[in-house]
Amino acid sequence: MKTLTSPMQYYPSTGWVDRPTHLEAPLQGEHYCDIAVVGGGVGGMLTALRLAENGRDVTLLESDLCGWGASARNAGYLSSTVGSDPHILAKYYAGRFHGLVRFADSAVHFTEDLIDHHSIDCDYEQTGILASAVTPSQLEAVKAGAQILIDAGIDSEIVDGRDMGVPDAFLGGIYTRIGGIMNPGKFALGLRDAVLASAITTFEQSRVLDVKDTGGSVTLDTSSGRVHANQVVLTNNAHAKELSITPRWLSTPVQVTAIETEQVAPNLLDAAGWTSRTPMVTRHIVMESYRTTPRGTIVITTRKLQMPRGKITDRQPDQAIVADLIRAFRTRFPTLHDVQPAKAWAGWIGMTPSVLPVAGYASPRVIYNSACNGHGLAQAPYLGSLVADYICGQGMHDHLKAVWRAKPKFAPGLVNPQTLKLAWLADRLTDRRG
User: Fold this and answer.
1) Residue pLDDT, tens place only, 8-22
2) How far apart are the C-alpha atoms of 373 and 74, rounded to whole Å?
3) Could you give the C-alpha distances from 171 to 64, 97, 150, 283, in angstroms and in order?
């Protein structure tokens, strides 16, 4: 293997974009508004923007920098992925399955329109996405699940990997025509620009420590001030459980990891069989994803998840997980064995027990919504807009009904350190058998 001209860089935030140097001032003293939104990710920003467009007096509170959490750290897939295995969804969510499919499909189109509306330069490419098997047995399962999604109305087809122009390791599966890839950091910061240019009162560096619904109003405490609002929307995803008002088991924080290679010559990608450059995700329990970028690199994500040991704080990626991602890359792309990783970063996302977007009332004046789950880049802003319209008296959209929870009660999720380890072992056993 050749030696990198510079050492591999580890980021505690994101490798997609540089961090803005200017932050909005934190909340100081007492502040009054109609509606407060907690969490400045793409979901929270869209909730606030839509509320402001409907003429509401909105305050947005973000613990750090709007758009700098999971919104800027993901793989940049604009995907119509619906939760977990289609067989499970069709069986256990039979009454809502078609609504969930329509929600996910509409979320992609909504986000594409959002990019155009705000003229966000985020390198978006409408490529479609291939959910591929990497073993013959996995391929049969993927085909069966794909047919369920196709029958439900997802604009997809079952394909062979050779016909798709992808490397031999990717045998084929379901190719979804809508959606594509973008630079998620540019997208999130583009939304931040739209928020800061609007009438929304934005406080960054303002972590909300407590939310209390007193019956007449809601108070939100930070370390340096207090907000009094008539209503509150919680969109803090991985940090949801830090607030006592959040429904128990709503969201479990997990850390995902990404690596980016050095630049790869186009002829080497062609020789590897990736002539189409179609972005790919594998159909493991915990997926792997592979995509190219406009800067001539490859970004590889996930494969193994981590849970926090105590309080959630940004930290550099785990070197063992980075090494595991590199092994996966070498396995899937053997002809690119000399291509070296140049960057690695990691960050927290929120996983709901059903791995589906959810929304509902935490109390009479407090609404929560959570739409990350590792594929929420399109779903989080769309859900935020639906919740905002509902608050503004426009009724409950059918797509919001599909994810709405009548009661703030959730069963304990299956996400814990033991199950995450078992998922990784099961995926590696699948690979070995293949």
Assistant:
1) 999 988 999 999 999
2) 11
3) 42, 28, 19, 11
